[in-house]
Amino acid sequence: MSEKNYSPIGIDLEKDKAYSWCTCSHSSNQPFCDGSHRAQNATPPMRFTVEEDKKAFLCTCKKTSNPPYCDGSHNK
Ligand code: FES
């Protein structure tokens, strides 16, 4: 059985584009929401935008204190 990989995912984020970061862990399109939270009756996604184009590492373990960004919590 393979262990789930909770490493952050580097994404090139675009200025003013609307993103939906998965908060529930059920999405098959991490780190983004794919709508699976509805069937799971889980928490909805966190919507966010960025003010400039930038690369960021988005959390997939969902333990970050700075969502949607990785804060290293997956290593704790
Ligand atoms: S699938 Fe996780 S928040 Fe939508």
Spell out the key features of this protein.
76 residues, mainly beta, Ribosomal Protein L9, domain 1, two-stranded antiparallel ribbon, 1 helix, 4 strands, binds FE2/S2 (inorganic) cluster
What does this structure look like?
The protein is mainly β and 76 residues long. It has a domain at 13-50: 3-Layer(aba) Sandwich (Ribosomal Protein L9, domain 1). It is built from 1 helix and 4 strands. The chain has a two-stranded antiparallel ribbon with strand order 1-4. A two-stranded antiparallel ribbon has the order 2-3. The chain is globular. It starts with 8 loop residues before the first strand and ends in an 18-residue tail after the last strand. The model has no long low-confidence stretch (mean pLDDT 94).
Helix content: under 10%
User: Could you please say which CATH topology of the domain at 13-50 applies here?
Assistant: Ribosomal Protein L9, domain 1
- Strand arrangement, major sheet: 1-4
Sheet with most strands: 2 strands, antiparallel
> What is the alpha-carbon Rg in Å?
12 Å
**What is the tally of beta strands?**
4
Unreliable segments of 5+ consecutive residues: none
**SSE class:** mainly beta
Query: In DSSP terms, counting alpha (H) and pi (I) runs of 4 or more, how many helices?
Result: 1
Give the class-level CATH name of the domain at 13-50. Answer: Alpha Beta
- Large-scale geometry: globular
Which percent band covers the strand fraction? 15-25%
CATH architectural grouping of the domain at 13-50? 3-Layer(aba) Sandwich
Distance between the termini: 22 Å
Mean pLDDT: 94
What's the CATH H-level homologous superfamily of the domain at 13-50?
CDGSH iron-sulfur domain, mitoNEET-type
